[in-house]
Design brief:
The structure is a single chain. This protein has 294 residues and is of the alpha+beta class. It contains 9 helices and 11 strands. The chain has 2 domains: 166 residues, Ribosomal Protein S5, domain 2 (2-Layer Sandwich); 117 residues, Alpha-Beta Plaits (2-Layer Sandwich). Strands 1, 2, 3, 4, 5, 6 and 8 form a 7-stranded mixed beta sheet that branches. Strands 9-10-7-11 form a 4-stranded antiparallel beta sheet. Helix 1 runs parallel beside helix 2, helix 2 crosses helix 3 and helix 8 packs antiparallel against helix 9. The longest helix has 16 residues.
Length: 294
C-alpha cells in the first residue's frame, strides 16, 4: 500500500528561554505556527517475503534525494516509523519512505520534525490503528522535541523542551516570506552560549497571546523576538540585511526562527510580500513566499 501526504514547516513567532532545568535542558517558551512551505512524503509498505518480523531498521529505508541526509535510523522519518511499529506491534513489512525536500535543511523550520510527525500520522492512517492525537504526540516526543507540535500544527504555545503544548487562537491570515542565508547554525552551540540571567531582550509572549485573542496581526508582529539572535557569532550582516529588505517592503515584523538562520517576515499585503520575496531571491536562493496554515 502507498500513501502520499504533505509535511508542513513551522516558524517560531516568538522564542524565549526561561530557565535551565535540573537535567541540563533549557525551559523554552515559544509561540509556534505552521506555514504552507512543505515536504512531500510518500510511504510504500510491502510484505517482506520469508519473514514474520522486521529485523531492526533494515526494513525501513528513507530516500530524501539528498546525499548528506541519512537513509537509515539516523533519519527522523525512519525513527518515527520504527517507533510506530514498536508501539503497535505491527511486523513483517518493508517500508520505503520517499521525501521530496522543499523545506531547507538546518534552517530552524522544523523540516526533520515535521517529516517524522507526518510519517506517524500516515502510518496510523494506512494501518487504521486509530492511535489518537495524544498517543501520536507521545510517540513523537520520543523522537524529537518539535515533533509533538508538528502532529497537529496550527498556532500553539510550546513550553518545556517544546513538548508542552497549549492551543492558541489562530493567527489572522497573512503572507509569510522566509529567507535562509547561505550558512547554518549549530543548535547545541547556540544553547551553549545562552546565559539565561544575561538575556538582554525577550519577546513579549504574553502580549502575543493577547493579540491573538483579539485577532490583532499588528499586535502579534510588533512583539516578536528570538533570544538566539543575541548569541549569533556569524551571519549577522546577512540576517540584518534580510530583515532590512523585508521592512523596506512593509513587513509588519521580522524574526529569526528556531536556532536559525532562516528569517521570516509577516505581511498583511500579498503585493508587499511578493515584492520582498522577489528582491530577496536576487541574492538568497532559499527564499520562499508562503502563508499561515491553521
Amino acid at each position: 500500500m502507498t500513501e502520499t501526504s504533505l509535511a508542513y514547516a513551522k516558524i517560531n513567532i516568538s522564542l524565549d528561554i526561561v530557565s535551565k532545568m535540573a537535567d541540563g535542558y533549557h525551559y523554552l517558551k515559544t509561540v509556534m505556527q505552521t506555514v504552507s512551505l512543505s515536504d512531500e512524503i510518500t510511504i510504500e509498505c510491502t510484505p517482506e517475503e520469508g519473514t514474520e518480523s522486521t529485523e531492526g531498521t533494515e526494513s525501513i529505508k528513507v530516500d530524501a534525494g539528498l546525499p548528506y541526509l541519512p537513509s537509515d535510523r539516523r533519519n527522523i522519518a525512519a525513527k518515527a516509523a520504527l517507533a510506530f511499529y514498536e508501539s503497535t506491534g505491527i511486523k513483517g513489512n518493508r517500508t520505503l519512505i520517499k521525501i521530496k525536500k522543499n523545506i531547507p535543511v538546518c534552517a530552524g523550520l522544523g523540516g526533520g520534525s515535521t517529516d517524522g510527525a507526518c510519517v506517524l500520522r500516515m502510518l496510523d492512517k494506512m494501518y487504521k490503528t486509530k492511535l489518537g492525537i495524544k498517543t501520536l504526540e507521545a510517540l513523537g516526543k520520543t523522537i524529537g522535541s518539535d515533533v509533538p507540535f508538528s502532529i497537529q500544527g496550527g498556532t500553539k504555545l510550546a513550553e518545556g523542551r517544546g513538548d508542552i503544548l497549549t492551543a492558541l487562537p489562530p493567527i489572522p491570515f497573512c503572507r509569510i516570506v522566509i529567507c535562509k542565508p547561505p550558512f547554518s547554525n549549530s543548535t547545541p552551540e547556540l544553547f551553549g552560549r545562552i546565559k539565561v540571567e544575561k538575556i538582554r531582550a525577550r519577546p513579549d509572549t504574553d502580549g502575543i497571546i493577547k493579540a491573538l485573542e483579539k485577532s490583532d496581526l499588528n499586535g502579534v508582529a510588533k512583539r516578536m523576538y528570538n533570544v538566539f539572535e543575541d548569541v549569533l557569532t556569524h551571519g549577522e550582516p546577512d540576517i540584518a540585511d534580510i530583515k532590512s529588505i523585508m521592512h523596506d517592503h512593509s513587513a509588519l515584523g521580522t524574526a529569526m526562527t528556531g536556532s536559525g538562520p532562516a528569517v521570516f517576515g509577516i505581511f498583511d499585503s500579498e503585493e508587499n510580500a511578493k515584492s520582498a520575496y522577489e528582491q530577496l531571491q536576487e541574492n538568497y536562493k532559499e527564499t520562499y513566499l508562503t502563508e499561515v496554515v491553521s
